[in-house]
Amino acid sequence: EITSANHHVSEMAQMGLRTLVFAKRMLTEGEFDDLNERMNAAKLFIKDREELLTHVFEDAERDLVILGASGVEDRLQDDAPETIQSLQKAGLKIWVLTGDKQETAISVCQQCEHFTIDMQMEFLVERDSDGCLSQLLSTLDRMNEEAPNLASSAAVQYSRTSTSERAAVNHVHSGLRQSSTRTTKKKFGLVVDGATLDVIFRTDQLKAKFLEACKQCTAVLCCRMAPLQKGKIVQMVKESQKPHPITLAIGDGANDVSMIQEAHVGIGIMGKEGRQAVHASDYAIARFCFLKRLLLVHGRLFYLRLALMVNYFFYKNVVFIGPLFMFVFFSGYSAQPLYAQAYLVLFNTVFTSLPVLIYGIFEQDLLPSTLMAEPALYRDISHNRLLSWSQFLTWFCCGVWHAVILFVGFLLFFAESDFDTDGKTEGLWSFGTLIYTSCIVLVNLKVVYTVSAQH
Predict the structure, then answer these.
(1) Closest Cα to residue 111, out of 138, 147, 85, 149?
(2) How far apart are CA 148 and CA 137, in angstroms?
């Protein structure tokens, strides 16, 4: 009976159907009371609650009698293959984490083109540490022989000074062609099941080798996973060696909550499996295909806007505070201010807030239609380049230089100032007001020049 059921389940799984096995076990009243008492006690624990509940479930789910099995077609959402292809072209490494059988999961991955025909498939199916380590090492040897580390390939970037969208797209295409000539066409797909992941999680050595193998794969599939394992996978990737990757998890059911909460960015899909994933997520979308626009358009534009705003706010405050710092050496280290008190408040709130606010809301260096059609443009924001220390120091040094020019320039100008009609020379407030006015004009022109140089 078990052999027959297993045969039918395997056949349905290979057809891509979502399989379910029905079984029962008759409990006596004493057995039920014992299991119920142990389960209620396990739920009261804060630490190791999941592990204790797992032990209770294992005791309850034994000596089962098989009733039958079913296979239900689980259709892919519209545009799911196109969305996955676009995200891969954008440079994202995609992992599929599912609780389905291995055959079902592989069939679904092939339908959505996560696994392609030209990929060499590698399988990790071991139940002990030594065997798992041996299989990982042999897998790594095959990958190193036939392909270089795909994760180390150069990111494609286009010049931020491109004068047109067509120029930016052409630059990306040329960069992709150069990158493809440096890397082999061999692609690898890795399949690992939940039991093997339990073995991998036991030692740091196995986790390191597993991550090394995954980095060299184009696509990774983890099947037969428990919900808690999904969160552990995301945590393992987050804590991998530097540079630490930014993780995003997307799911539509309660079994995806752990990985959605563990990832840097969690996205829930509103569907027929309830709203648990949506309630636990940072963003909610109605269909999987909306992820393409969310990342390639809104994600990229938001990053560009935020990167300039952060650097610009540091810059303009360095320009503003720099003359105050230098004036200390000319005022006998007294508490005499260079600007009027009202100017200190109005600088950030009134005189310099509008230009950068307009930029932060309306900036679009490329049209959304261009970004959707050319996913490789998303690579421009890879490695957090626009918020790196080199970019920050560039803006900071620029702010210091402009502050020095303002203060020293007006200091020399007022050194030999003429008398006014009353026979008096220009005083401190004239000196400070001129620096203040010039600072406002300078920082506003800076943001206008920076934005114009990007288009």
Answers:
(1) 85
(2) 16
Give 225's DSSP letter: -
CA-atom Rg of the chain in angstroms: 30
Lowest model confidence (mean pLDDT) among 97-111, 144-158, 366-380, 392-406: 144-158
Cβ-proximal residues to 63 (8 Å cutoff; 6+ apart), any chain: 25
Give the burial class of 415: count Cβ atoms within 10 A of its Cβ; 0-12 exposed, 13-18 middle, 19 or more buried.
Answer: exposed
Cβ neighbour number for residue 12 with a 10 Å cutoff: 21
The amino acid at 419: F
β-pairing verdict for 187-193 and 248-251:
unpaired
How large is the average pLDDT for residues 174-182? Answer: 53
Q: Is 26 exposed, middle or buried (0-12, 13-18, 19+ CB in 10 A)?
A: exposed
Longest Cα separation, the chain: 112
**Predicted confidence (pLDDT) at residue 156 exceeds the cutoff of 50:** no
- One DSSP character per residue, 322-363 reads HHHHHHGGGTTT-S--SS-HHHHHHIIIIITHHHHHHHHHH-
What is the pTM for the complete model shown?
0.74
Mean pLDDT of 288-292: 92
Helix (H, G, I), strand (E, B) or coil at 419: coil
Do the beta carbons of residue 186 and residue 218 sit within 8 Å?
no
Partner residues linked to 166 by β-bridges: none
**Strand runs (DSSP E) across 149-232, as ranges?**
187-193, 219-223
Gap between the Cα atoms of 12 and 101, Å rounded = 10
Residue 270 zone, left/alpha/beta (φ > 0; ψ -120 to 50; rest): beta
Which stretch of DSSP H or E encloses residue 442? helix 428-453
Number of H helices, E strands in the chain: 19, 9
User: Is residue 121 within a helix (H) or strand (E), and if so which, with residue range?
Assistant: strand 119-124
Q: Are 185 and 118 in contact (CB under 8 A)?
A: yes
Give the Cα separation of 81 and 83 in Å (integer). Answer: 5
Q: Is the N-terminal amide bond of 355 cis, ω within 30° of 0?
A: no
Distance CA(341)–CA(13), nearest Å, equals 74
From CA 186, how far away is CA 206, in angstroms rounded? 25
Please list, in sequence order, all residues whose beta carbon lies within 8 angstroms of the beta carbon of residue 45, skipping any fewer than 6 positions away: 52
At 215-237, the pLDDT tens digits run: 888 899 999 898 889 999 999 99
Which of left, alpha, beta for 222 (phi over 0: left; psi -120 to 50: alpha)?
beta
The residue type of 237 is V
